[in-house]
Fold these 4 entries.
Entry 1:
Amino acid sequence: MLHHRFIKVATCVVGILIASSAVITSTVAKPAGSSKTIPGMPAILDPNDIYASDRPDQFSPVVKDFPQRVYVPNTLSNTVTVIDPKTFKILRVVRVGREPQHVVPSWDLKTLWVNNDLGNTLTPIDPKTGHFGATVYVHDPYNLYFTPDGKHAVVMASKDHQLVFRDPHTMKIQKTVPVACAGVNHADWSADGRTFVVSCEFSSSILLVDTVKMKVLKQAWIPRTHLARTMSGAMPMPQDVKISPDGKTYYIADMMSDGVWLMNSDPKNFGKFKYLHTGSGAHGLYVMRDSKSLLITNRGEGSVSVMRFSDHKLLARWKIPGGGSPDMGGISADGKQFWVSGRYNGDVYVFDTTSGKVLAKIKVGGGPHGLCIYPQPGRYSLGHTGILR
């Protein structure tokens, strides 16, 4: 994500961030924390793997009869392109609200929500029938998440500098939480569901949020130590957030530092980082279906890095022939393909997850962004383009 309307905001906070980042250390502390989950959250099936329900084709009964489709929101065309992943053919193109950013599965897996950011609406999709429903008014819905207990939707109101907790079905506001940063955009939850980490793209920082109290607990700034870009005034730009299968480590993609920051998930160690270089414009993070490795899209160089969780070793870098701009997407239900949008090329790329080869480039609308392949394995959704557990 890089909205032109935030560039001035990012520039204004540079001085503050330089001073703040100086107090952040770069070591990863030993994991710790409570194993007791929040009330209403589905039980953890495997304490060593919170993604144990995401194995190939391990569908919930809710979605087992849904047709496999890929939904691509085109930010510049104000449309959603629907693709058949078996044939790579476009089935239809549907007009939605202004600047659709992401297509997001609901907590109960029954609805997909198109985030029409500048249109200030959400468009519901019935994934069983493919029907696009009537829009729901929601102000500044850049991104959308759901708490692990299913009690709240959380709108990342980036322009408004807010986290807005809403009813997960009606989207009626439950609580508005102002944040002291610019560009809230991505998030992921601790294994016990008690806290979640939010990235602030234009303030070079992250937030720690209490799920039950709906309250920001802490803010930490990303170090400039490994900033790869040489442009004047460049600052770290945190993007996607993902937690490890064992729940001990958060990974935070940093588009300007060209890599991923590793942070211990214990709230006591919030803000202590270790850096891993992956590639230019590190952006999206995706856990493979065997929970052994993480895919990292490098939007600036047209590649995808493969990182092994056990030792953080980079196993491979998949390159797009002729270049590209891989942004957001998802792994197919059988785990054999990785689908990702080409943000600045108007394409969707399909990778073979075994060989790393590009199987297809599919031309879609302008500015394709938060692509969602659906249905996916898992019991419930935390939102974004499909964080299922």
Entry 2:
Amino acid sequence: MIRRLWRTAVRFLSSAGLAVGLLVFVGVWSLLATVIAQGEAANPAVTSWAAAHPFFEPVVRVLGLHVAFTSYLFLGSVLLLEVSTSVCAWRRTKVAVARSRSLRSAVRADRDSIAEGHDLEVACGPGLGESEVLSIAAEAFARQGIKTKRSPGLLAAVSGPWTVWGSPVFHWALVALIVVILAGQLLRSEGAMALAVAETKADEPASYLSVQSGPLRDWSRVQRSIRVDAFDPDYKTGGIDRGAVPTVSVLDGADNVLVKQRVYPNNMLHSGSLAINAPAVGLSVWIALLDADGVETGRIIQYVDFSQETSGGTVPVRELARTDAAGDVVMRLYATVPLDRYQGGYGEWVPDKPSARLVVTTAAGGPLLDRIVRPDEDVALPGGGAIRLLGVGWYSRLSLVDDPTIPFIYAAMTVAMLGLAMTVAFRQQLLVATFIEGPSNPALAVRLRLWRNTPTNRSEIESALAEALRGNEEGGTS
């Protein structure tokens, strides 16, 4: 009973239907993850998506599609696919071992061993000797697409033992790929970071506008920072206009530059397992905080994005807040940049005469201040102190992906492609033939295995040999 259940389970796990079904599910799930906001429930993007899709949100929440690649349903499906692929890989490995042994044995075979153990015996016409039989057989094999090598008393067309390992290599590489992808989901981080020109931020969750990380992500081991060194609003290279392009540096824990380069589409910055892209740009408003005596107590940066739909042409990325000693918000500050008018819209660049619109509200949103200020101009804040506009510049919204498994993913994919190429391109065959004396007429004994990519089959070979070796029974050979 146990053995029967085990065999049933193995057949189920190694079935093509199960593997295809799981692959389709994983593909559809991944596609859904690209259109559904990803993150925890408190993530603003998730909250906004839920508000815009109230009908689908309960189902999405139950299925875990907001955390698609770490949900139990997805991980369970991938784990089942991993087991299925492993069982299939193991069965193919056992077949490859047996075939490899047969091929090595065929290489060492002699006429006596073939005479004792063969798969096919074709009677020859009377009067045919060994040399003539082997020559006729070689021509018959060639007409079937099999080129043989002749040695004393033998014809052979034996594939190398390594040719049978393409399929196992391919499947074990898939097993490794799934393991690496699962590990990547547990270890990786991905998020967006806003950086103004000359600004440096440590690579830690607090520095991100939004970030997602795997449950095994150890931020304490990340000892680096990111800096935007310069910004070219109209960068051209190789005759191609790349648009607004930042120059980004990755610094180590001692502030030494590890990598520095311009970042634009198809020119990502790579530093170890970290990859940085620059999908969006905007403006930065630099503000100094002053106490009642006019002494600077700190600086803050308001990032603003371009928007042709809003008055003035920009919107703040997030609010700035003043808190009391208990950490409660007592005042909210929003800064935007009035843009120059251009062709009926707004020019998405630093204005010729930069300024900022400062809006201050109470914690509940009540208006306290709404004023446009110029650089080096001070504005008194309700409740004491003041703010000073230091200037307006550029900022870059960087996309950072840190996945230590990426090199292993590429390695597994490379090995898988090599295994697949071996499986598709190389022939797997075993053919050894020798002349034997029969009780009446001589015969050709053939040890034959045709496994993959062969141009013929056993039945065609047997018919071709029988016709070619009839010899004098039909009045001679041709």
Entry 3:
Amino acid sequence: MADTFTITNYVTYLDVEEGLSPHTIEAYMHNVNRYISFLRDTGILSPSGVTREHVTEFLDTLQSFGLSQTSISRNFAAVKSYHRFLLRENILSSDPADTIQVKASRRRLPEVLSVEETIRLVESPDCTTPAGVRDRAMLEFTYATGVRVSELVSMTVDNILFKEDIVRITGKGSKERIVPLGSTAKEKVLEYIRTSRSALAGARSRDILFLNMRGTPLTRMGFWKILHKYAILAGITKHVSPHTLRHSFATHLLEGGADIRIIQELLGHANISTTEIYTHVDREYLKEIHRSFHPRA
């Protein structure tokens, strides 16, 4: 069947025009393909046949499947992006999704570790083993820089400027940012490079910093499993995900008095509103302190 829905061109648009990461493009395409499959099932074989009613029926179908409001919102964001593309390419003259509004999902506060919990976590690896040396360096590096897990597993050795104590991080949309590397993380990463990494490195290692025991780049799932293991060892009962250290990095900076604009820069957020969620976390922390120490709280 011909690509009547111009999916190939849409992927190119997301990549070249929108500058989205491969992971984000994959998520968009998953949702758009679901939408197109729904349209075909209802007899719509090209974008020109789509009406507002089709879009609302698609959203109602998602709700009937039991999807969360967050998932429905993500699907609708992909649908709107797809129709904007069709308008831009003059494939459609109007947007059937334009006047539809989806109830915004309530933004959950990210799970955050306390400073004491974070220290327990990063100090959990047994540094008498090569894997432990790597894991300690990896956890210290993640907490010191606030990197996303995708940025962590793609980090290269030459992007760490040890003399300047900084790290070059390539984030979403291939945007580069500079983040300081703390003394503890620097020490542990240097120890790992001198010992474990040199022992692990092989023909397929390239310049990737963190390698698995086969000498190939660590995957996101591989890091998640490592993190999960040390969360248990550290006796942490909270749900700990790869993003938890990033959230904790930002929250601890805010609690320490850092300006939110600086935190935005360090996290690589394009929009300050994304960073502002940490001000809510900080308010919860302040309320907790108030409850704990104020005589009339």
Entry 4:
Amino acid sequence: MVGPTRYARAGSDDIAWAESGTGSPLILGGWWMSHLERDLEYAPIRSFLAALSARRRVIRTDPIGSGLSRSRRATPATLTPHIDALTAVLDDAGVERTTALAGSSGCPVAVAFAARHPDRVERLVLCGAYLDGSAIASAADREALTDVVRRSWGVSARVMSEIFFPDATPEEQRAYLRHQRTVGSPESAAAALAAVYAFDARAEAAAVRAPTLVLHRRGDRAIPLALGVETANAVPPARLAIVDGTAHHPWHGDSTEIVRQILTFDGVDPRLLTEPAAATTATDAPGTSPAGPLSEREREVLLLVAQGRTDAEIAAELFLSPHTVHRHVANVRSKLGVPTRSAAAAWAAVNLT
């Protein structure tokens, strides 16, 4: 079950955090415009978190000025307040040492946190990483995009979706646009984007001592691969893993491979994460992909997924917890060898109806 939203005090800020799953702790810092509650309403993030929570105690936070965190200021453009926020959350959660997982603008924060607090970081995983925000784009482009975000959240959300998730289907892009527009105001989004461009952890990188995995998609348009390579080269114990694809966020595209790499690096036996060799896909012809590998309960859940039901709706109908439904859906995807919830639903439409 996803735990309730809690608050950790960091200076004058109340940092929102929540947790799910059991096992060794893994803290996932907030990215540009995160929202602890609304992120769970977005299927790709929900599935990504469910897969991690099946093996780890996942602690999520919203940055200062974003989501449910309470602050009188916009997202700070310096690293120290964000490092203090992570420290406060870990203290509030009673966690002395953790794996730190970060994506995008969370990466320079995580690098600086690991450098300044080596006693708190067991391992470091960076997805779509950069160290110096000014290297992401030219000064003119950075200023122009921040201005568009501030003046027109609708237009900028579409621009961002084409950068972050360029290979999305029309349905996936609509879902992503709806999600982006619900997580914050134009003013908070513009301030958070300005912070993305201002972060600079280059001076901290060489001091990191925790084993580090830098995961980067080859065709990432938001943060070019060259910046991921630069990050891996700057962090002494880092290993670079280049993954095919163009999506920037780890929950888009082939998120199954991203989760596998994260959990394997974090010490999970890879045999527990291997999909069946005979897994089928949603493009198989009717009758060629029997649902034999699925349990009766998994078939029941999958049929409701195919009807467009949310996890909460499925949980209510079947008298299960939402977390249990998350696990059933994750198991179904693993057994069928499909990367997304929608692909599993398409498989069900062909093979179970």
